[in-house]
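Quiz preparation item.
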């Protein structure tokens, strides 16, 4: 009836007439509206998923090195999706020693975490190695996306991984990239210093330790001087 452009209220009245009364229909007009609305939302999500996969399939025909992979949930709906193109593969082959795993972007129409795999090139510009939309941020989901990323990069592992310190992410890294050094990114370290030190002068000195020193010896010297100056020996 919907395909024939019959209004929902008219379709309901027809069912009432056929069944012999409102009591025999088994549901109200509001129930019907709710059901159709839920069905429309599912169709929209499913349609968007199919459109996305169709788009990636079309791009793969143009870009022979494009890689994408997805998983489905128990209802056969799209759960996780990862993709990267040939430019990302080329950038990773040159600048993939340090990998930043960023899952800070969570605001989107589908309320799914958007993960970015990024790095830095020889001009200190950000390069993107891949993207992923995840169903959640759990110890089950993160290994999938890390293994998929590794597969897409032809098995080449990074030498160091920077993250925001999420515990589920840390455990996944230990499983998928055993022995790979895992560090917090400087942005999160800087934010934590502001939260915990609560002294603008110490925070400024701390940031100079992070950003101004380029050698281990220089960092140790400046760090020791800061600790002594502000009496931070017993701070944990």
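Solution:
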């Amino acid at each position: 009836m919907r395909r024939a452009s019959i209004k929902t209220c008219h379709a309901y009245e027809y069912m009432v007439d056929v069944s012999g009364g409102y009591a025999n229909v088994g549901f109200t007009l509001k129930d019907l509206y709710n059901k159709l609305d839920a069905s429309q939302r599912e169709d929209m999500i499913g349609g968007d998923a199919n459109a996305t996969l169709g788009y990636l399939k079309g791009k793969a025909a143009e870009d022979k090195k494009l890689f994408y992979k997805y998983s489905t949930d128990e209802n056969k709906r799209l759960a996780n999706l990862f993709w990267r193109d040939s430019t990302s593969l080329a950038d990773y082959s040159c600048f993939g020693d340090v990998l930043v795993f960023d899952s800070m972007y969570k605001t989107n129409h589908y309320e799914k975490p958007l993960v970015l795999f990024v790095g830095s090139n020889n001009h200190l510009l950000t390069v993107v190695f891949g993207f992923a939309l995840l169903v959640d941020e759990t110890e089950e989901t993160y290994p999938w996306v890390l293994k998929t990323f590794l597969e897409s990069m032809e098995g080449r592992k990074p030498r160091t991984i920077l993250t925001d310190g999420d515990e589920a992410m840390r455990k996944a890294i230990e499983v998928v990239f055993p022995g790979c050094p895992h560090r917090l990114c400087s942005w999160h370290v800087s934010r934590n210093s502001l939260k915990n030190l609560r002294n603008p002068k110490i925070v400024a000195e701390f940031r100079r330790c992070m950003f101004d020193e380029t050698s281990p010896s220089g960092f140790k010297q400046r760090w020791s001087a800061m600790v002594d100056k502000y009496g931070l020996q017993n701070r944990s």
